[in-house]
Amino acid sequence: MKYYSTRSQKITANAPEAILKGIAPDGGLYTPMDFSEMQIDLKSVLQMSAVEISAETVGRLLPDFAPEEMRALIEAAYAGKFETEDLTPVAKVGDAFVLELFRGPTSAFKDVALSVLPRLIVASREKLGVKDEIVILTATSGDTGKAALEGFRDVPGTRIIVFYPDGGVSDVQKAQMVTQEGGNVRVCAIRGNFDDAQTGVKNIFADDSANGWAAKSGARLSSANSINLGRLAPQVAYYFKAYADLVLTGEITLGDEVNFVVPTGNFGDILAGEFARRMGLPVARLVCASNANNVLTDFIRTGRYDRRREFFKTNSPSMDILVSSNLERYLLLASEGDFDLVAKLMRELGQNGVYDVPQSVLEAMQRRFSAYCATDAEAAETIGRVWREHGYLLDTHTAVAWTAMEKFRAECDNGCATVVLSTASPYKFSKDVLRALNGSAPEDGFEAMDQLHRLTKVPVPANLTGLRGRAARFDDCIDRDQMNHYVQKAVAE
Ligand SMILES: *Cc1c(COP(=O)(O)O)cnc(C)c1O
């Protein structure tokens, strides 16, 4: 199967190459164009377990891996890691459905993909005959770092170094990272903010000498961020899984269309929904939910993408993004493969911070996507109300999506069953969730977790309760300009 750089039809890769490279040499993202060989037989999905659905969908998307190989890879990736065999269960809440993507080892939806990506990287490395150890560098504002650490932990042939901003992540997120187990992991704080950490990592990737010193130590630097095709592919599975659950519980009939409401940041999660639709899933509308950083809401409504606006730090920090990188892939699909257009739009975004899509692209997008946004205050109100009315506890990101669903229904109820994707355990954001229920919360994140549990009796995920009192393994803290040296030393060890 051929994957094209979004910015040039001439730049292609097969699946192992795309996964090992991460990003195309021209800065584009590797994307499949033709889904006709990737159709999923819905009826057969009804008989499958969650792991089987994952193997089937990832295998269709990445057919360079043989079915048996993919099946073994996916089984190993998820074995014993998730709270339920179901991986991503569906809960009925009022007259809607919540797809719980947070039942993995770090209680965040990124676990779904980051459990699989390390194994795809290792398998790609073998297929391409690369002998070097793969060293993953990740800058994190909290969630991705932990999910990546857990995903790469003790995966042979890989090593991972995570940088986080000192004082810039929550107590719980810090505890999650510095207590990380595994022989191939390392965690380091940066004196600075998230951008400093991120820029430091980008500078290492851009450093011409880096490939040289890495190769000398038998290593190759790589990244685990969400533009990698190997992170996108595993996310398609839960759309099919949710659909099968609704059919099997009699909520819908096979063939009925369903709406999905997706709390969106980098557009990876919701793009996986569009891939699922192109692979044969009956999707009515994909509803893009944003917080106060509502650049996507404006884009989907008007066709103008304008990042020249104030950046807000919200209570749904994983959605605090002004440049949604995966949108680039959708632009290629919506323009029916107009590579030159995508290259031009991305140039305009880089140079001017704004672009307008042609009317045809806007119409194609609006046929499938709706978009709504919610403020912190609206999301907090939603958390309180859904708890009181339905006894279901939403996290701050899911609350943005629930609020978007309500606005969508008020404006254009199409009568289809609606699934809200839930991306984090409420206990990952205990302070804000407790404040939404109670009006106040203690400063300490673990105390807030206790109080939230006493108030709601909703079980706390074991990976979070187990953190307290666990000894920190990592206490490195460096300046940004020391990062390059730090990585060189670590790689040479
Ligand atoms: C990453 C993340 C999102 C956004 O997902 P995208 O694929 O970037 O759109 C939403 N919620 C949570 C909790 C996340 O960690």
Characterize this entry briefly.
The protein has 493 residues and is of the alpha/beta class. Helix content is 46%, strand content 16%.
Q: How would you describe this structure to a colleague?
A:
Helix 20 crosses helix 21 (445-456). Helix content is 46%, strand content 16%. The chain is globular and about 60 Å long. The protein has 493 residues and is of the alpha/beta class. Helix 7 links the parallel strand 6 (133-139) and strand 7. It has helices at 15-21, 42-45, 50-61, 67-78, 110-114, 117-127, 143-152, 171-178, 194-206, 208-216, 229-232, 237-248, 268-278, 295-302, 327-334, 339-352, 359-368, 376-390, 396-412, 430-438, 445-456, 462-465, 483-492; strands at residues 3-5, 8-13, 30-31, 90-93, 96-100, 133-139, 158-165, 185-191, 219-222, 258-263, 283-290, 304-306, 354-356, 369-373, 417-422, 476-479. Bound molecules: pyridoxal-5'-phosphate (PLP). Residues 108-110, 143, 226, 263-269, 318-319, 397, 423-424 line the site of pyridoxal-5'-phosphate. Pyridoxal-5'-phosphate binds at residues 108-110, 143, 226, 263-269, 318-319, 397, 423-424.
